[in-house]
Amino acid sequence: MNTELLLELARHQAWADAAHWKALRENAALLEDAEIRTRLNHMLMATKMLTGLARGEAPDPAGMKAIEPADGLEAAMQKAQSDLAAALEAVDPDKMIALPRGPQGPWEAPAGVLLLQAITHSQHHRGQNASRFRQLGVTPPMTDFVVWYALGRP
Questions:
Q1: Model's pTM, two decimal places?
Q2: Which of 42, 120, 133, 141 is the most buried (most CB within 10 A)?
Q3: Which of 110, 62, 111, 124 is nearest to 84 (CA)?
């Protein structure tokens, strides 16, 4: 697993999430939308869980509650991004992590795969939110990786 590539993907994710949060704050109807709010909370919980698992921590059900209001959710997502980046720097990406369940029961995965899943999972849901923005009449920000790269990886 290429840690530098994972770090680049995590940096892109932080930038893309910030662009989405800017659009969310500028359009109150977006933050009032139950579908978007549910998805944002799901993204947060998945990032926290996968990052914790990659660090060898047991899942914490108490930390998996929906966050309200929106500014608390935004801050929690920023912290989860920061924790993900820190884990990428500290965790051995090849260390095997025992997982209690999977598609065929208990299994093991490299920590790097869990961290990659945290990144790609959020990308997927950010795309769903962008689609929902359009349904609600708001043009989503352009947050493709190639755009971030062309802008000098801000």
A1: 0.93
A2: 133
A3: 111
